[in-house]
Amino acid sequence: LSIWFATGLLDKPLGELDAFMPPKEYGTIQELHSSSMINVGSENSELTHWHTDYKLALEIARKLNKPLFVDFTGWQCTNCRWMEKNMFTRSTVNELINQMVKVKLYTDSRKESEIANRQMQQDRYGSIDLPLYVILDNSEKVIATKAFTRDEEEFITFLKKGLNSN
Questions:
Q1: CA–CA separation, 61 vs 18, rounded Å?
Q2: What does the DSSP 8-state code read for residue 28?
């Protein structure tokens, strides 16, 4: 058992246990929030990069005429980590998500920006569930929303709604 856990130190997946680990960026929160300006440029980099600034991501989505995938997440959210490690990494899911501009909005700390993210989630979508995924068109109209699911086909159907609306 110790050897199996030790493989996690070498960046090997731990399966279901990965959901209980904080995101890799956890120790560098400031770096993550300032990374919103990274990769602003080519369409390909805009679609593979996760932004942390909602307004910037919306502006990029409008510029590229792509839907905006909003990931309301939390630092301590095990369901969020499970989705990131076990759902987002599946080839079809990853391919579909990477056709949209993506923004990750943390909502579970006392930082002013995260309190604002949580308030936006509650005001606009009537939910404080984590994770909550929202796909928006260029005018910020909601195309689809989805909470945590372990059903890959259900999540793929949700993602396709966002891509079929353009």
A1: 31
A2: G
Q: pTM for the full model?
A: 0.78
State the residue for tokens 């904080």.
22
pLDDT in tens, 79-90: 999 999 899 999
At 87, phi and psi to the nearest 5?
Answer: -105, -50
DSSP 3-state of 132? strand
Surface-to-core class of residue 50, CB atoms within 10 Å of its CB (0-12 exposed, 13-18 middle, 19+ buried): buried
d(CA 116, CA 160): 29
| 3-state secondary structure (DSSP) of residue 137 | coil
Q: Which amino acid is at 27?
A: G
CA nearest neighbour of 144 among 162, 163, 121, 117:
162
